[in-house]
Amino acid sequence: MNTIEDSEVGLCKASMELGTRSRRRSPEPGPGRGADYLSALPDDLLLLVLARLGCAAAAARTGLLARRWRGLWARLRDLAFRDVAFPSLQVALGRVAVPPPAVSLLEIRVPGKIRPAADAVTSLLRAAARLAPEKLVFGLTGHLPLQDPNPAGVDLPCFHRATSIVLEWIPFVLRAPAAGGEFPALLKLSLTGCKVDDLGTLLSLCPRLRVLRLKSLIWLGGDDLTTVHSASLQELVMESIWTHRVDIVAPILKQLTLSSWAEAQVSISILAPMIQNVSWQWLYDNGTIGFGLWTLEKLRLQTAQRQGQLPSLLIHASSSWYSFTDEAANFAQEIEKHMVTDFFALELHLRTTGHVFGEFVLHFLGLNRIRSVIRRLKVVRVRQGSWGDEACPANCPCDTMNWRTQTISLTALEDLEINGFEAEDHELDFLKLILHSAPMLKTVIVKLSDEISSSDDTITKKCNIFRAYPSVKCNVYLSSGLMHQSQNCLLT
């Protein structure tokens, strides 16, 4: 027989072939057989048993036990179809009665064996919307989006009762419902590995949306991918986004998480006056943005995660073989674009083959948003290549003399830390300049390079500069531990 009823017993199979399986009837109690007390339980208790299975297919297979169980799975409030063959899904959803009772969770994860057609995905989503679930999870596992110049579209139906929707790895362009459609109850929306035709239009149909998560979205060539305007949004997460433009207008947004790549200068506009927690990270292609011989690699802005921690801006940069000429203004503007919230600590990680870094660091400290507010400065020098390798030729553009005589006022700076210190002349000049420019400085920590040993007498001699600043507590560390600690200088 080919009826839906006769195929129910095969629902648990991975392929969910509902249309070709004949019914196996369970034996009825009789002479020599025990009474089926479990099947005598009321439906509500049997449904509790089925719910514990966590899988609609497994729940359907209980129909093999006795006729009494058949069809009960379709009355579950939580329905999870995982690794179910696509052709069987719509038939299975058709077995579920429309509310009431209401479906609390509908989870559909289709295995990536055969790529379904866009029309079939649209039809399946409509079948899911018919059940009006409170929570929807829909993913085409393994069906990675294709870089098709003219990708097919999938029309999203309206889920009027849904408070949470998760869509993952749908290899088609998602189109918002037509005019008049809306997601009136939606509070959380998560899109992973999807193509979105018009994110702005989709968000406008979610008047109560509080949490939006976007991950690995596929860029369609327009600007709307990272344009988020929402009057109700409180948390926004954008991860693994490759873009050059971010436009956020969210008047009650409190938490923002973003990780992105950039291959050119970016455009950033954020209006979120109530924001409290920020985790902001951008990776730049090598050679995209730079200053002098230094190229920007990574930028991260992080609000405090624990008590006593300062909101911080972290920069990774490396010395390059070519020079960015006349790029000082562009570099400063690019950095300032990312200052989307206040911070009071600056950390610079510099990968160098021995180039002078003083001018590059002072360029950061000269920015208006940094100079007057920074309380803690940390410079981490990471030498590339072997110790003693000649890095700077004569008249190297990394070292212009004017930075040593530069005047800068770091009125808020209290703590300075330098890691990978080699006590070269340019490093001492930089240290002197900071000591002279920071009247509120309280603590200096210098961690020497791994190549410097405790027997190097020149280190102690070179650190005489601390004598002129008796109010500053100075600590110098070898890689193996504390070398010397003094309230007013490093000398014993």
TrEMBL record:
Residues 412-445 form the FBD domain. Residues 124-268 form the F-box/LRR-repeat protein 15/At3g58940/PEG3-like LRR domain. Pfam families: FBD, LRR_At5g56370. This is FBD domain-containing protein. It comes from the Eukaryota. InterPro entries: F-box-like_dom_sf (IPR036047), FBD (IPR006566), FBL15-like (IPR055312), LRR_dom_sf (IPR032675), LRR_FXL15/At3g58940/PEG3-like (IPR055411).
